[in-house]
Write a structure and sequence with these properties.
The structure is a single chain. With 337 residues, the protein is an alpha/beta fold. The protein has two domains: 2-131 and 261-329, D-Maltodextrin-Binding Protein, domain 2 (3-Layer(aba) Sandwich), CATH 3.40.190.150; 134-245, 3-Layer(aba) Sandwich (D-Maltodextrin-Binding Protein, domain 2). It has helices at residues 2-22, 50-64, 83-91, 104-111, 119-122, 147-156, 172-183, 199-207, 222-226, 274-288, 291-300, 309-329; strands at residues 40-43, 73-76, 98-102, 124-132, 134-139, 162-166, 192-196, 213-217, 230-235, 262-268, 303-307. The strands form two sheets. A six-stranded mixed sheet has the order 2-1-3-10-4-11, with helices on both faces. A five-stranded mixed sheet has the order 7-6-8-5-9, with helices on both faces. The relative contact order is 0.20.
Amino acid sequence: MQALNQSRRRLTAAGLAAVGASALRPGSAWAAWKPSQVVEFVVPAGPAGALDQVGRTMKQYVDENRLLPKAMVVANKPGGNGKIAFDQLKQRNGDPNVLSVNTHGYIASYLTGNLDVLPHRAFTSIAVLQDEFLVLAVRTESPLRTLGDAIEALRRNPQSLSIAVATSIGNHIHVGTAKVLKVAGVDIRNLVVAPFKSSAESMVALMGGHIDLVAATTPNVITPLQSGKIRLLTVSADKRLGGVFANVPTWREAGVDSDFSSALGIIAPAGISAEQIEFWEGTCRNMAQSALWKELAERNQSRPRFVGAAEATRFYEQETIAMRGIVKELGLLGADK
């Protein structure tokens, strides 16, 4: 894991160097190609969630800066652990006028056999844009006051607490949570993990006393946290976040020497040209430096981090190798993975 973290830092440095060389140039100045028709951003999830916010923020950025001949279209294609959305990209091989997102969630879905494509292998990586972090939440009345309380209970009996995740067993939220518990000495194979269709549904179950813990990404807990209906035990970041998460300890502060993040990136269909990659990579690079993108990151307490196209593919491949070990230990690794 130390080697993986060092690799992440090298890739981040490469991305920042690229930003320094070319950030904030006019929208069409860096590439020989630019779109001449409607561009569609396919979101592999329903409206209003974290992935949808990314698509709609990118639409706002390119529309406001007039980078496209017509307004970008955002199409929500939830279902199948991303399969429905990614089938759209498969059908449009070589078409630079469609984009989507990649995350650690799709790596986990591929490794568990719930998704038939690994996005960074099947499609064209454009860029990594940000890291998202996980939290463990309890209802306000819960007797669990700290991560240590939960770990102590789970060490004694891994089935003593129920843990909710969205949207599937073996996804990145499950894997990331299992990572910290494994380091803490919990038997992660015997955890009671309950999948929900959305984090909103798991929060309702938590507040109703039907679930002991919810593992979720930071954007999905802001509203119930601000309402005072939940408490957060910990966050998976390497250092404390800000905003409404400023008082939430990291795993290391809670006594577990580990961290976890899910990197969100932009992808396009396979078979697009170098000039087309250059246009979208440059657009993402500049968007990552914009006030609009920084506002989204501040609101959701994700961490902006730009990594360009070539480095992004290598990065996701390294993360696949790292995640495979945890998925295997959970007993969820697909037969051919």
